[in-house]
Structure formats: C-alpha cells, structure tokens
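Work through this protein:
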Amino acid sequence: MSKVSIVVPFFNCSYIDHALDSITKQTYTNIETIVVNDGSTKHTDKILPYLDKITYVSKENGGTASALNTGIQQATGDYICWLSSDDIYDPQKIAIQLESMKTHNAFFSHTNYYAINYRGRIISPPLGIQTLSKLDLITRISKGNIINGCSIMIHKDVFNHVGLFDETLLYTHDYDLWLRIIQVFDLQYISHPLLLSRIHESMGSKKYASFIKEENKIVINRHKYVMEQLALRYKESFE
C-alpha cells in the first residue's frame, strides 16, 4: 500500500484546522501529514488537536517554496501532495487520485476543483483545466499557470529528475516547477473535483497580484526556449 505524504505549509493562517480536518477525513489511510510552520506568530493553537496525527516542523520564515521544500525533504511517502492551510480536500481526494495515477502509470497529476468563500461555501463551477493533448498542454501552460498546486500529486522520483521548488521565486515557484516537470513527464488530469480552493481577502494571490504578474513573466521567459522546442517536437510528430 503506497504511502502518500501531504505537505501543509503554515504561516499565520486561521483556516489551518479546516485543512488538517480534511486530511483526517480521507478515506485512504496510509497518509503522512507534514505541517511546516514557516515562522508563524498566530493561530498555532489550532494545530494542537492534530499533533498526534502529524509530523510538525517549525522553521524561520522563508516563504512557501522554502516550507514546501522542507516538507518534501522530510517526507517518506511514495507520492507527494501539497495542501495550503486555507484549502480543503474532498474526503476521497487521495484515494481517487492515487488509484488513477497507478492505473495510468502517471508520475504527475492534477484534479478538477471548486472555489469556496471564507465561510467554506462553494462559489464557482468546477475550475480545473483539461488539455486535449501534450501539445495543447505545452501551448497553454507556456502562457501561464493552469494547474492548481493543491490539486497535484507527484511521484517522489520526479524530484530526482527536476529538483525542488525554486526558493528565489516568492509567488510563482509552483508554475516554475510544473514547467520543469512537463518537460520530462506527462501530466494526468482527473476530472472529479477533489479540492476546495478558498478565496479570501488575505490570500497571497490577491494581496500580491502585481508582483505575481511580474514574476510570471520571469518564469515564462526562463523556460521559453525549451518550451518552444518541446512544442515544435510534438508538432512535427503529428505531421
């Protein structure tokens, strides 16, 4: 029975107990939960009821990429997932995603998801983006991030090929990693919505939207040549 490690970066988030509660309700049981306290000064008391169910790592503040890398390096699972401390997993998230990845021999996957508000109420239709082919994926993701990071599951061996998150990127470390992964591995999409992604005023993507826009340009330019060559290769294979 494969072990799945779920890394939960935590920095002053009042919803952390909701995230951890959703992990404890997973129907799949061979799960390792690693909470990385990235220098939090608030809401740490909400973790206390879960201490006997998690691996708890405390570190100085270094940003989300640093917290994720710390968790991945601590992980002993065969597969790695990431859950933000303000998001919620569907109870069957791990079970469905893992079974699908094993069935299709996938190393990297993401799922459909809903947006929820600060009260946890669903406020959107399913928002996941399914691509029609590897060429379609390359074309679309070369223009911007189409993967919700908290919907992913990655086989641990992937990191041996592409490395960890780039800690110099404060906001787009996930986008950069996805681009590196799809240069080597295929991406599987699971149409079942298995994540509730919370939208609220204090979330980083709202507070730092202008910085994210500029950092996106850096990531796109960093991978532009390789992605163009990859697209050309797949175009030629269809001719």
Summary: Helices lie at 16-24, 64-74, 93-103, 134-141, 157-162, 173-182, 204-207, 209-238. The longest strand covers residues 188-198.
